[in-house]
Design a protein that fits this description.
Alpha-Beta Plaits; binds ribavirin triphosphate; binds magnesium ion; 4-stranded antiparallel β-sheet; alpha+beta
């Protein structure tokens, strides 16, 4: 399988729950390597731009309010089939539907406050990585 990169966000609820390290362990356990990372408190404009594909949806204002409610950790994950692998370990958008052992099953409390974001395709990943990181902020892999 091809080596890919994907964009991951640990959302404000999970940062507030102090489970950043536990979520990073899930990435590493799945064979995904963190090749860039930063903590950020998103502005309204940054959150609106990031989720622009959802701007006509009824939940958009609530989503932007939540994503700007506290700091997030944004990272680039690299590994074999990283986009789908990351989505698999995140679990379903609504934690009520998330498979046992997934990040959302274990750390998310609702569909609105669901702990993590992950790019949903290689095209989204390319756009989302460039949204947060310049090329020089992404480290070469060590293995
Ligand atoms: P994400 O983009 O954050 O990784 O989540 P996702 O792909 O699993 O879900 P998506 O459809 O892209 O929705 C983005 C975020 O909007 C919130 N949402 N709320 N109330 C609702 O019906 C609803 N639907 C989506 C969720 O927080 C979701 O993660
Ligand atoms: Mg999405």
């Amino acid at each position: 399988m091809a080596i890919e990169r994907t964009l991951s966000i640990i959302k404000p609820d999970a940062v507030a729950k102090n489970v950043i390290g536990q979520i990073y362990s899930r990435f590493e356990g799945a064979g995904l390597q963190i090749v860039a990372a930063k903590m950020k408190h998103l502005s309204k404009a940054e959150a609106e731009g990031f989720y622009a594909e959802h701007k006509e949806r009824g939940f958009f204002a609530d989503l932007v309010a939540f994503m700007t409610s506290g700091p997030v950790i944004v990272q680039v994950l690299e590994g074999e089939g990283a986009v789908l692998k990351h989505r698999d370990i995140m679990g379903a958008t609504n934690p009520k539907n998330a498979a046992a052992g997934t990040i959302r099953a274990d750390f998310a409390s609702s569909i609105d406050e669901n702990a993590v974001h992950g790019s949903d395709s290689e095209a989204s990943a390319a756009r989302e990585i460039a949204y947060f990181f310049s090329a020089t902020e992404i480290a070469p892999r060590t293995r």
